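sanity check this fold:
=====
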Amino acid sequence: MARRKKIYEGKAKTLYEGPEPGTIVQYFKDDATAFNAEKKDVIEGKGVLNNLLSEYFMLGLTNIGVPNHFLKRLNMREQLVRSCEIIPLEVIVRNYAAGSMSKRLGIEEGTQLPRPIVEYCYKDDKLGDPLVTEEHIAAFGWASQQDMDDILSLALRVNDFLSGVMYGVGIRLVDFKIEVGRVFEGDYQRLVVADEISPDSCRLWDIETGQKLDKDVFRRDLGSLTDAYTEVAKRLGVMPKTSTPASKPTLIN
């Protein structure tokens, strides 16, 4: 049987045509990038860990009624997801100041924010995913006001879920980003959490020590990214404490 048709290849994932209409196979690569792909490397086992962790978080969201595109995991590096029309926004939820927020506003990293702050970036690698306001989003027609209300609700529900899950295993959810897609069912449209939820898209700090367990380990040369992600997976029970992630990719035919 011929290999499935490639639809899209991004920095961390490759998308293939799914086995049934309306489905996509999402393949997690070992590639790591930072600073809009100015820094690159291949981190053995990273794709396996992100696949397992994203499955864990998406299933958790499904269990509490938060719609998302996840259908099932196919193997160690691939999952089957619903095809959806991605809204061209990165939706960022911040619980503590870190990264670009600290630089923009001069707030010390780790400062707890008075409430979760939701920011939006326009998805365009060539432009560096610039920060945009709801005025930009409305003016350029990227999403309707109803969409924005639904996106905000989704983002805050994901934040409540992830914050609780992480706190339970001694990890502080500093911030995270999600993408949202439109799924069409006849004339009806609904919004779902899409892409992935993994340490690639979250800032995760150990509550006791402040140790970083996310992609900042790679950005700032703080040690082994695989070890950091493995620690998150072990605490959540996604991997047995004696396991190490498989390194070789497995593509389905």
User: Anything to note?
Assistant: The chain is about 30% helix and 30% strand. The longest helix spans residues 145-167. Confidence is low (pLDDT under 50) at residues 246-253.
